[in-house]
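Sample 3 of the quickstart, ligand copper (II) ion:
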Amino acid sequence: MPIASIRRALAGTVLTLATLAASAHSYKLGAIDIDHPNARPTVAGQSVGGGFMTLVNKGAADRLLSATTAVAASVQIHSMTMDGNVMKMRQLDALELPAGQTVELKPGAWHLMLVGLKAPLKAGDTFPMTLKFEKAGGVVVTVNVEQPEPAKAQPQHEHQHEHDHEHMH
Ligand SMILES: [Cu+2]
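Result:
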């Protein structure tokens, strides 16, 4: 695994005001910048959680192939689209990272789904996650568990329909 050069993003990161600057962090892996990996807190008994980050591809097209972490049995790459009023999540084999483009993993859009959480994720905690890219290779990032800001908190909105997920098995 290539050694990732890690830098602190002290400025210039586009984040909402409520996101503490102190919690901003980013990684550089080849042509890919990985900004602010984060996850939502979960409650006891909740077996899935959402993982988010911004992927900036400054080079040729690449793909995120997989993510793994010790805190969950598996991590799936999901897309989410609106079909009328119904949100549909779909598991992807890989997340396309077109040349020169930014792909935001966020609630209501592409995201990582942590499946089979071994313990609740608590706000303020961090955990390591390994990301594997087709061309850029692998990197271990630190994921910050963060409470979403109240103004746009729709707790677990994006995963409430989890139980009728057809693709989950
Ligand atoms: Cu999902």
